[in-house]
Design goal:
single chain, mainly beta, 2 domains, eleven-stranded mixed sheet, 5 helices
């Protein structure tokens, strides 16, 4: 699945990578009605107003303190006759995202994403990948991608039973005298506008140390303020702000990230070892997308949601340390991938070429070869596109699909 990584906004956005998403996590959309029980079940995920209660899915568990409200974050699930959002303008529906949650109190928005993937090849990710879209960040950081504005302070924090740090960001006119992309308060105060959790080595994404997951997969936690007027943001040292930050730290002490059994095709293990290639990997249960089957044409890519049990998605994140690839880079990885599939018993059953629709702003071509093994199919997508501004971009996307 090509990742749009991370998160599409209106109140808050974590994420995302530019790639082949069938879904992207959000944190500001309407959620179902309140649950009559203290525990949120994996599917469907209702919202709850918590009083020291548990918010739990099959991906994580966290205790919500009094006064805070937890609601399942939503994700955009794309539909329509297309295989990615680069080369089409699909429609989408909002569905609960089992991997993330919004926890709010007043204007404070705490966001937990237990399956956060980054778009960049930068170790630890970029600030914009976890912060762009958060209202208080957008109000102060006027250009993205950019560095943080103002000053930062670190406080120890235990998250998922590991020692981490909570990083609090503050802004003032003094801090940002030479940062043209920063909008400072004009009332002479130093205001808080964002916090995030980082590990001992720094970075915005906290990677899993779990063999089944790709090195670029991890979790991210942030807190922002739901406001656009910089002068109205909480002043540093304000009692309400101090309590909110303390609550954030206390909540995260109770956070447990889970690793349910995932679908991992045998061939993928060898493909991940193709020389000098970093793969971004993600998993989905009951993925809703329009992947190509053995019988589909360019106009009928319709493996339906109700026929999909799970999927395993791979995207070339970097090749020989580069995040922009040449056609030769992709071709060599494609040849190695096809060889591995053949050795593992996969047989080619279809090939479809797709082009972007007129007016989309990109000249995009996807050559999708379909291979089959028992009740599994894989879409091997060699993607190339030329932006209006010029320059060719290449990538390779694999989606293994286990059918019911």
């Amino acid at each position: 699945m090509k990742k749009l990584l991370f998160l599409l906004l209106a109140i808050f956005l974590l994420a995302a990578g530019c790639g082949k998403p069938s879904s992207t996590a959000q944190n500001n959309q309407p959620t179902p009605a309140a649950s009559p029980t203290p525990t949120v079940t994996p599917s469907p995920i209702p919202s709850i107003t918590s009083n020291g209660k548990i918010f739990e899915t099959d991906y994580f568990k966290v205790t919500i303190p009094e006064g805070w409200t937890a609601k399942a974050a939503n994700r955009k699930v794309y539909t329509g006759n297309c295989n990615n959002v680069l080369n089409c303008r699909p429609t989408y529906t909002n569905e609960p995202d089992r991997a993330s949650v919004n926890i709010t109190k007043g204007n404070f928005i705490l966001f937990i994403n237990s399956r956060a993937g980054q778009a960049s090849g930068v170790m630890g990710g970029r600030f914009s990948e976890i912060a762009s879209g958060a209202p208080s960040v957008d109000a102060i950081v006027t250009e993205q991608p950019s560095q943080e504005c103002g000053e930062s302070e670190k406080t120890p924090a235990i998250v998922n039973n590991e020692n981490n740090f909570r990083v609090d960001l503050y802004d003032s006119s003094v801090n940002n005298a030479n940062a043209v992309w920063c909008k400072s308060p004009t009332n002479g105060k130093t205001v808080w506008y964002f916090s995030y959790i980082t590990g001992s080595e720094g970075g915005y994404f906290n990677y899993f140390n779990v063999p089944e997951y790709s090195p670029g997969t991890g979790w991210a936690v942030t807190m922002a303020y739901n406001g656009k007027t910089v002068n109205s943001f909480p002043e540093k040292g304000n009692g309400v702000l101090i309590q909110a930050l303390s609550d954030m730290t206390d909540m995260l002490k109770t956070l447990t990230i889970k690793f349910p059994v995932v679908y991992a095709p045998e061939a993928a293990k060898s493909i991940k070892n193709i020389g000098n290639t970093y793969w971004s990997v993600s998993y989905e249960e009951g993925l809703n997308s329009n992947f190509v089957s053995c019988t589909d044409t360019a106009n009928t890519s319709n493996i339906k949601k109700d026929s999909i049990k799970s999927s395993y998605n791979m995207e070339t994140g970097s090749v020989d340390g580069k995040v922009s690839f040449t056609e030769t880079d992709v071709t060599s990885r494609l040849e190695a991938t096809v060889s591995i599939l053949s050795k593992n018993g996969w047989s080619k059953c279809n090939s479809v070429t797709k082009h972007n629709p007129p007016g989309s702003g990109l000249q995009t071509t996807d050559v999708i070869d379909v291979y089959k093994l028992g009740n599994e199919v894989v879409n091997v997508d060699s993607n190339s596109f030329k932006a209006v501004s010029g320059g060719m971009n290449y990538n390779l996307f694999l989606t293994f699909i286990k059918l019911k």
